[in-house]
Specification:
The protein is an alpha+beta fold. The protein contains 21 helices and 16 strands. The protein folds into 5 domains: 2-63, no CATH class; 79-137; 139-279 and 355-398, Nucleotidyltransferase, domain 5; 282-339, no CATH class; 401-492, no CATH class. Helix 7 (179-188) runs antiparallel to helix 19, helix 11 runs antiparallel to helix 12 and helix 15 (374-396) packs antiparallel against helix 19. Residues 556-570 form the CCHC-type domain. Residues 593-610 have a biased composition (Basic residues).
């Protein structure tokens, strides 16, 4: 075997070491001499190469067999080798866990490697990916043009920043709103839009803003999204201007916007959509409220207020909380109750949800894509949305009911609740319905009930179902048309067209976009987001055999008082108090003995002397 240079010799020795699962030690590693032996004591293996003048090459002179068994540790399996072998896997899955990576290497190579080696290998691959990261920004102009060609009418806006006219443009923001998604939303979804933002976790730092609708099955329907540099009033205003233009929202009359208390979003909505109803997520309001008011007895009153469908029910629940903790009740309504309580919601959009979980669902569905550079991120979202539409079409073709499955389940729940309702006829399709201790007025002709549950959701409430059954009518016929399979099909009939890959694209005659300045943060990057208080509580509940420490009252072992432990006890550094022993000592000897300790008994046994 002949080698051109010493690098080929080292590569051959490493390949033999890894293939045979034998750990080699390079005893000589020079330009014209190379000798490797097995690290196992007593093994007769020898790999010797030296320079041969006759052929002017390095020649293999000695290669003996191993006399040892397999090695589970191999110093030749280094970070560089792992990075080269698993480069494609790491690029496709930057979140590949180190323990899973070790298990894969153990199965493929038969060698156990240290976790630190896997970590260095991932770092090598991801550092090289930074060059691809720059290239992906250069694709954005062409990618935007290809999206417009694939789906005519699509809105794609890219905002760049030039420090000087002669400098290349720096990426700032990018908005994507496919025409097919826009048509599907307007044809089959209710007039309520969920807005939310989430962090990008890869080299491309920033935020992904999204607008999400609700389809006829009460599931998410992506409308538009944008990559922005930071979440602020300016970025939200830019996003909302483009969204309002695409959907022809005007000032928002007849529309409802659901969101969290995002940075800059509330003033942006108030400025651009002043006539829209703005609902805030009750779950996020509750999480902020419970940080101050931690008593578990008060928490059900918050949700009783949030889910009250009438003003009278809200006032009743509020007074119950106020009678127990006035400060908690006052803090609860610091956020206007019209924005998070059902009792004050509009009945036009037929949605009674008090949270914005529909947007959180979208953020969770793209969590892998959020680790990728901008082109890969946006294309992954496009592909996921395109596949989802095709799957929804296929699922709807198997439905037999005229209304969507989730809505039929809600109607079944209301039907079971209607068993305890009793009605009194008033004539002209009007009724009084007794539901436990409550009584409600219902008018079938106007499809309204004084409980407002039917008005808010568009699904007959238990009181309406009782009256409809009394008149011999099917409650299914009185479900709002927004929940029909026809509306569902109208939404998902607008399919998205496929696209060619970057090699088939026609280049655009524009300066390539450069990424914003990259700033590596110190320390190991955090992958997990901070959990809110209620999420921590739910996480603790997953182990039924362990009592949660959340909201548990602790007692001090020193002073026996509640609310602290012995390490933080206020009496810890207090001056010592004279004890009873000192008092007795000052009074002179007693009849039970002298000095420290207990007095001896009068038995015949004697203690041990000193």
């Amino acid at each position: 075997m002949v080698f051109t240079n010493i690098r080929e010799v080292r590569a051959a020795a490493n390949k033999h070491s890894i293939t045979e699962c034998k750990d080699l030690k390079f005893k000589k590693n020079e330009a014209k001499r190379f000798r490797a032996v097995c690290r196992f004591k007593g093994c007769q293996f020898l790999f010797f190469v030296s320079y041969d003048r006759s052929i002017n090459r390095l020649q293999l002179k000695t290669l003996t067999e191993h006399t040892c068994s397999q090695h589970w540790r191999n110093s030749r399996v280094r970070a560089e080798f792992i990075a080269m072998k698993y480069k494609r896997t790491i690029r496709c899955n930057p979140r590949w866990k180190l323990r899973e990576m070790r298990a894969t290497i153990r199965e493929d190579i038969g060698t156990d490697v240290y976790q630190s080696i896997c970590e260095r290998a991932k770092k090598l691959v991801l550092q090289k990916t930074q060059g691809c990261y720059v290239d992906e920004f250069g694709l954005l102009w062409t990618y935007a043009e290809e999206m417009r060609k694939a789906d005519p009418g699509t809105t794609v806006k890219i905002k760049v920043d030039r420090l000087n006219p002669e400098n290349k443009p720096l990426f700032q923001r990018m908005y994507v709103g496919f025409a097919s998604l826009r048509r599907g939303f307007l044809q089959g979804c209710r007039q309520i839009i969920g807005l939310d933002g989430c962090f990008l976790k890869g080299l491309c730092k920033g935020e992904l803003l999204s607008a999400i609708g609700r389809d006829a099955n009460d599931q998410m329907y992506p409308i538009a999204w944008a990559v922005v540099e930071v979440e602020s009033k300016d970025s939200w205003s830019w996003f909302l201007e483009l969204l309002a233009s695409d959907l022809s929202l005007g000032e928002g009359s007849g529309w409802s916007i659901s969101s969290d208390q995002q940075k800059g979003l509330i003033p942006a909505i108030a400025s651009l959509l002043p006539a829209a109803e703005h609902r805030l997520c009750a779950r996020h309001i509750f999480c902020n409220w419970r940080k101050v008011h931690k008593n578990l007895e008060w928490h059900p009153y918050f949700w009783e207020c949030a889910k009250s469908t009438t003003v009278m029910k809200f006032n009743h629940a509020y007074k119950k909380l106020e009678s127990r903790n006035k400060k908690a009740a006052q803090d609860m309504v610091r956020v206007p109750k019209e924005q998070w309580c059902k009792a004050f919601f509009s009945t036009m959009v037929k949605c009674d949800s008090v949270d914005n979980n529909i947007s959180e669902t979208f953020n969770a569905s793209i969590v892998e894509a959020r680790h990728k550079p901008p082109y890969s991120l946006l294309d992954d979202i496009r592909v996921l949305t395109m596949e989802r539409i095709a799957k929804k079409q296929e699922a709807a073709s198997k439905w037999t009911s005229p209304f969507c499955p989730k809505i039929m389940k809600k109607l079944e729940i209301n039907a079971k609740e209607s068993r305890i309702c009793r009605i009194v006829t008033c004539g002209n399709h009007e009724y009084e319905v007794n539901h436990g201790d409550e009584r409600y007025k219902l008018r079938l002709g106007a499809e309204t009930c004084s409980c407002r549950a039917w008005d808010l959701s568009g699904i007959p409430c238990p009181h309406a179902i009782t009256c409809l059954v009394y008149e011999g009518k099917d409650p299914v016929d009185y479900i709002s048309n927004w929940y029909s399979v026809a509306k569902y099909n109208a939404t998902y009939s607008n399919t998205m067209s496929g696209m060619d890959g970057p090699r088939q694209w026609v280049p655009v005659n524009l300066d390539p976009i450069q990424p914003p300045p990259f700033r590596a943060m110190p320390g190991r990057p955090k992958k997990k987001r901070r959990l809110s208080a209620d999420e921590i509580l739910q996480k603790d509940k997953k182990n039924p055999h362990k009592l949660s420490r959340v909201n548990r009252i602790i007692f001090c072992s020193k002073c026996k008082q509640s609310g602290h432990n012995s390490r933080t006890c206020p009496t810890k550094n207090a001056p010592p108090v004279a004890c009873a022993t000192s008092v007795r000592a000052s009074q002179g000897p007693t009849g039970r003995g002298r000095g420290r300790g207990r007095g001896r008994g009068r038995g015949s046994s004697r203690g041990r002397g000193r």
